[in-house]
Fold these 3 entries.
Entry 1:
Amino acid sequence: MENIEKRLPDKVCIYARVSSSENKDNLQRQAQRLEEYAIARGYQIHKVVKEIGSGVNDNRKQLNNLLIDKDYRILIVEHKDRLTRFGFNYINTWFEDVGKKVEVVNESVNDKGDLMQDFISIITSFCARIYGLRRSKRKTEKIIKELKDDKEAQASS
């Protein structure tokens, strides 16, 4: 951890996220606020990442790229839920383990619109999984039937 701190003492990445394209203007303002915060703290900004996507989506490309980037020490987010709706403590623990830190500018959260959008995303995701499981089950049953039919056809020939 000491080596990372010496090599990247005040190098930061900024991560701004909104749930939908309807909030694109808010995304720009969020990123601007975070840049101003970083400058006021005397940080060197390595990268500013802006992403549109649900906080419950665990496969956000920009965030994934940011998590594997080794060239910064502090990740700045405006609220915990901008980073993720669930599992913030896992990410924070991992950051600490690799000698990095997540810095949350504003600990309070009061964004009902994004929360509702994430709730809809959860329901949509679960529905897709249920229908996917049903489809998968039907496919498996069809393959088993075809294998049985082939086996019976071979046995009778």
Entry 2:
Amino acid sequence: MPRVTVIGTGYLGLTHAVCLADLGHEVLAIDVDAEKVAKAANGEAPFFEPGLEPLLRKNLESGRLTFTMSFAEIADFGEVHFLCVGTPQGESGQADLSYVHAALDSLAPHLRAPSLIVGKSTVPVGTARRVMHRVQALAPGGRQVDLAWNPEFLREGFAVQDSLRPDRIVLGVTSDRAEALLRAVYATPLAAGIPLLVMDLETAELVKVAANAFLATKISFINAMAEICEASGADVIPLAEALGYDARIGRRYLSPGLGFGGGCLPKDVRAFRATAADLGVDSVVSLLTTVDAVNQGRRDRVVALARETAGGSVAGKRVAALGVAFKPNSDDIRDSASLAVCARLAAEGAIVSVHDPVAMPNAAKRYPELGYARSVSEVAQGADLVLHLTEWSDYQAIDPAALARVVARQVIIDTRCCLDAALWSDAGWSVHVLGRP
């Protein structure tokens, strides 16, 4: 069983390191951020992910997982090095590869023995082959240093499950040795019947961005249908149900609402669009431009609906926001549609107070001007409007009759289309649901 290292201890890297250790590997993880390394070595995850922290502590105690800040140490330790650094959105929408290059430039000069670097970061097609040549030129081991690409498909809130029991394992390789090493790394999930797909580097790079582009298109499509429903008096919920029974379409992710956000989907859609523009593939540019525009338009629609329910202006109105994380079971507020709506209403003069089970500390750092409440009852105190923005199960369990006793006006906008509208209406609330009459 090859010894492995993981470069980067952010969301992807820490989850991957912990889960590889739990599969029985000896894992050494590295980060240039001393605070991240110290926290992880102490058994503290720097972000909220269900089930991760107990697994982190378990594998620290077993000795299978350790942390360092030395690239020389990981070069000596491991035969397989997983690259899990961020590729944030650049100024023009393209992926910023500076962390990828910095990590590889720091590692390569220490690689003297045969070794394999495995990229997991989401990058533009063509990146892997370019960095392979760069690494081999810098490494004392030269062509003994191989490179492969193994895209990740983690869903925030389900990252541990997706790491230990993925729905597929994709390997982009240039040698039989690289494939054999990665088969050894993933021996446990492969023995459990997880599908393995082996391909060239460029195709493997495209798998992740193509998957995210398709998912984003599916979400934007049903949200476009929600707009049609609002304009025509139709109901998007039974429409989505009917579409979902078609085996060619499927029901998953065909959920209307406020749209997608987070650190991956919006960034990957825009980066893929930039790559398509560089390659001169105008059809992909046009498609993804529309997908992004539909998604951003859902935020505009909620702000407009808030104004309508407030009599034309939200200035001076008290707005209670339920949820600011970009999705439930996460404290991630990157490109959060929920938080963007709150910020825009506050900019228009609304007095916005928010509640979220785990994401408020992150939100408060970015938007200190918003109010933050410790409970649903507190956030709704004296509210003229309640916005259901993130579909936490806690909010679906709210008693609308009890909440009615603390608000100033019984008006709620369900932006995620998952509250029991009849229950809220029966309790005297004026209920507005995106895409429903």
Entry 3:
Amino acid sequence: MDDIAITFNFVSKKYGLKRGWSFANIGNEIRRLGQQLVLRDTAPREYFWALKDVSFEIRRGETVGLIGANGAGKSTLLKILSRITSPSSGRFEVKGRLGALIEVGAGFHPELTGRENVYLNGAIMGMRKDEIDSKFNRIIDFSEIGQFLDTPTKHYSSGMEVRLGFAVAAHVDPDVLLVDEVLAVGDAAFQAKCLNKLAELKSQDRTIVLVSHNLANIVQHCDRVLWIDHGTLRASGDPDDVVEEYLRTVSTLPMAIHKGKSALNGGKKESSRIISVCIKNARGETTDLVEYGAETTIEIEYCSDDSELDPVVCVTFQDVQGYNLGGLTSRFGGLKLEARGTSGTARLILSPVLFTRGVYSVSVSLLDSQLQKFLDVFPAACYLVVEGPSAATGQISGHVIFPHRWEIVDGCSLSSAHTCNRVLIETM
């Protein structure tokens, strides 16, 4: 059909897992190669399926977001679309001129200057020299690297390469534009400029495929979302619905309580160690499901026999991608752990929970009094599954809703237009 810009029909991509040389015994390696080349001894190879029977269609003028965990197959899909790699099976079709920015520095030669790489990269994307000449000043103005235009790109930072690469790709006047997570490398001002450019291309009925872990951008700019999970298409549809489903199920099965070996001591009976960690709701029930705005307790059972150690408990939170969202120590809260007995329990009370909807891992560690030496570490000891406002609505951004209120100042009068979450933050 004429209105279909991209077609993926049962596309699969597999990679052979290569084994390195065994330098401990090179004779064995020579014999192994001899068996393969001379005796044609074809031992079974191991394969990794980056994509497996993926099918979808994208209409002309549609902006489609690709979401999924790291290693799910998103970048492989873009590389197939941009013809950097070929599928192992299946077929695909892209109609019209293609612009792609899927890797930092892709299409750049490090020994060439920025000026020379503009012409090289533009030619790779199908632009004629006279076309690049006419757009050259706009490309450079957009990239903001004019001062370094005649410097070899091997001296560029990753952010400078991204700016120049996106500037070229966006000015190809592509019918289809592919953009990978590399936008996250640029600063906030340049990201805003790129998103405005995407909105401009969208208004011109161009087809855009956007890969991003920033789900707020996905919801705000995309007409449809494809969720790639372990090389397969798990869901496709409305951005709000697919992102909501992704947030609910992107993590492994959460644990409300953790008892086991620490990452540091391997379960050895050290004088100071963490025994268990659990999550409790406002009713004191052990659970991993908590509500935004409600009270939640993280309960840490520890053991410290050294009365002079003065240990400190640290609790940190990570999102589903493993990025650190911050944390707290018992020292900051003014809590002094008892170290005279065989065990004790420290409670971190979140009152209220301010995380947006999603899954968050809770890591717990025990430190010395100087906060320099780790006595024990439980990474991802528990998970918080938060029910509440979602970043998928586009009305909020990120993982934390800050205590706030909105006000409108009209002349000399001050009126409160909207008040939300006016909470008292107390140091426990």
